[in-house]
Design a protein that fits this description.
Helices cover 52% and strands 0% of the residues. It is an all-alpha fold and 148 residues long.
């Protein structure tokens, strides 16, 4: 069943140059560039389905872009709504515990923490410990003093 055609998106004189700049930027995130291109196509009067096919998104995504643009204008191009996106897989408390334990304690049967001993101590995978240490710049295996 065909959907009724959407009306042209109304842009203010200041919105169009901003959208053109975003859509032609090689350094902006792909999400912003694609959304700006879609909004410019909507302003030219293209159908939502045509825009969706051209940009590789769904028709409902184009409709959502139009709705968000009507409400928020150019300021929210490419922004992810609160509650959307990937959720953290490890609670912040566990991350803080790994950092605190790494910096302030020593394991019972070793001289420093290894990835495996910390993972067993906290109850998470060794790869997650590696990610936490790398993101915080922690290197418990390095000695801070000179040994002759």
């Amino acid at each position: 069943m065909a959907h009724p055609p959407a009306s042209k998106l109304k842009l203010s004189p200041t919105d169009k140059p901003i959208l053109e700049e975003i859509s032609s930027s090689p350094s902006r995130p792909h999400r912003e560039v694609r959304q700006a291109k879609g909004l410019l196509m909507a302003a030219d009067g293209m159908a939502n389905m045509t825009i969706a096919d051209t940009l590789g998104v769904s028709r409902s995504t184009v409709i959502a872009w139009r709705k968000h643009f009507d409400i928020n204008g150019v300021n929210d191009i490419g922004k992810v709504s609160p509650g959307r996106g990937r959720k953290p897989s490890i609670p912040t408390e566990v991350i803080e515990k790994v950092v605190r334990e790494t910096q302030q304690t020593i394991p019972l049967n070793a001289t420093q923490w290894s990835v495996r001993t910390m993972a067993a101590h906290v109850g998470i995978s060794k790869s997650k410990v590696q990610q936490i240490w790398a993101s915080r710049g922690l290197k418990p295996h390095l000695v801070k003093t000179f040994k002759p």
